[in-house]
Amino acid sequence: xxxxxxxxxxxxxxxxxxxxxxxxxxxxxxxxxxxxxxxxxxxxxxxxxxxxxxxxxxxxxxxxxxxxxxxxxxxxxxxxxxxxxxxxxxxxxxxxxxxxxxxxxxxxxxxxxxxxxxxxxxxxxxxxxxxxxxxxxxxxxxxxxxxxxxxxxxxxxxxxxxxxxxxxxxxxxxxxxxxxxxxxxxxxxxxxxxxxx
Length: 197
Fold this sequence. Notes:
10-stranded mixed beta sheet; Alpha-D-Glucose-1,6-Bisphosphate, Chain A, domain 4; alpha+beta; ACO12 thioesterase
C-alpha cells in the first residue's frame, strides 16, 4: 500500500512535468491543454480560483463532495480508509448514450506541500479490491493517472490544475469534448470553480 500510494503521487508529478503540452482552449479563468504520446491522450484543465490553496485542497481531496460539482459522478462511497492521506472509493458514473454505466475502484492519495513553492496534490488511480469485484450491471473502467495539483497564488487565490491520462474506458466521455462538439470539460471546470468559491 505504501508503494501504491507513493507511485500514485509520483505518476501525477511525472505527468504534470511532461514537456509538450498544447493549449487547446482559453476562457476567462479556465485553460485546457492536451498532451499526446502514442495511444495515450492526457489533458490538463487549469482553473483560477479565488480561495486559499488549503481550502481548495480540503474540498477537492474529499471525493464524497465530488458529486456536488462533477455530473459524471453518480455515486461515490468510501470502501476503505487506508490512512489519513489515503482512501479507496467506489465511483459509478452515468451511462452515456449507447454505453453501459461505468464504475471505478480508485485510490485517492493526498499530500500537503513539504516546501512553500510545492503544490498540494490529490492523486487518483484505479486499484483492484477483492471486496469489490466487477459487477454485471457496470462496465468496470480504469483510471491510469488523474488528480489535482493546487498552487498557491496569494493568501486568497490559487491555481487548480486537474490532470487525466485518458484510457479507452474514459474516452467516450471525452471524445465529443475535445473535438469541441461538447463543452463538458469546460462546464465541469466552471462548476468546480463555483463550488470552491
